[in-house]
From TrEMBL:
One of its GO terms (molecular function) is peptidyl-tRNA hydrolase activity. It comes from the Bacteria. It is an enzyme of class 3 (hydrolase). It comes from Nocardia jiangxiensis. This is peptidyl-tRNA hydrolase. It catalyses: an N-acyl-L-alpha-aminoacyl-tRNA + H2O = an N-acyl-L-amino acid + a tRNA + H(+). Keywords: Hydrolase. It holds the Pfam family PTH2. The keyword Hydrolase applies. Its EC number is 3.1.1.29. Transmembrane segments: none annotated.
Length: 250
């Protein structure tokens, strides 16, 4: 994962693109042209990773790709990224193990490891043109139990997942990926640059009974919420994840 060493024009431009928001238009008439970011979760059969660490890796990979120099002005991934970002945002999480995981790492994207858990965010594109190494990966079928990862790092953002929704690990991975992107765009460019210095790491936790308190932070403008479009698992408009920046009590 590449992290900027200085706050240059390229970083400012990439942050500005995130801060601009996302296209909200309808889907193209041809379903094969629907744009999506594929996310690959490394879930080996033996010794699978903790759920919280895997979700943190997925969230970090998503925002790291969106802030990578290759999606910025003149970058090799720029047009693929912008076509996706300026359409209806979708992410699809798939699981991989063994040779599948090694093959997924050959496809354009960024891999992040958090406490032994690994996830890869791939450069977005039309669903009708997904690389065959990715298309064959299973979307559902494997879940991970909630874990107790301990206290959060006060220097990192916290992504709080609404555990009452009962999202699968794949659905939750897509949602925390949305959350990290939204948070990066909501931060000032200086705050985003400080986050880049931490490799865009974040903590992911189950909110449980704290959800109403966190929702108040959203209403106060101190935190950022993901509201799902309702394509899978949850009802349209459901608030799935709340991203709280460092230094904000939540």
């Amino acid at each position: 994962m590449l992290v900027e060493s200085e706050l240059d024009d390229g970083f400012v431009a990439r942050h500005a693109e995130l801060a601009r928001g996302y296209g909200g238009g309808g889907d193209p008439e041809d379903p094969a042209l629907v744009q999506a970011m594929q996310m690959v979760l490394h879930i080996p059969k033996q010794d699978p990773p903790p759920r919280s660490a895997l979700l943190a890796a997925a969230a970090t990979a998503a925002v790291a790709l969106c802030m990578d120099s290759r999606v910025g002005p003149g970058g090799e991934w720029e047009q693929r990224y912008l076509t996706w970002k300026r359409s209806r945002i979708r992410k699809v999480a798939r699981r991989a193990r063994g040779a599948q995981w090694l093959a997924a790492n050959e496809v354009d994207g960024i891999t992040v490891q958090v406490d032994g858990a690994q996830a890869r965010a791939l450069v977005p594109g039309p669903v009708g043109a997904i690389d065959q190494r990715i298309r064959r990966l299973q979307i559902g079928g494997t879940d991970l139990e909630a874990d107790d990862p301990g206290p959060v790092d006060p220097e990192l953002p916290v992504l709080w997942v609404d555990s009452e929704l009962g999202m699968t690990v794949g659905k939750a991975a897509a949602q925390v990926g949305h959350a990290s992107m939204l948070l990066a765009g909501a931060l000032s460019v200086e705050q985003a640059f400080r986050w880049a210095g931490h490799g865009y790491r974040c903590s992911v936790r189950e909110a449980g009974p704290r959800w109403p308190e966190l929702a108040r932070l959203v209403r106060a403008g101190s935190a950022t919420a993901v509201r799902d479009a309702g394509f899978t698992e949850v009802a349209p408009g459901s608030m799935t994840v709340i991203a709280v920046p460092p230094g904000v009590a939540g």
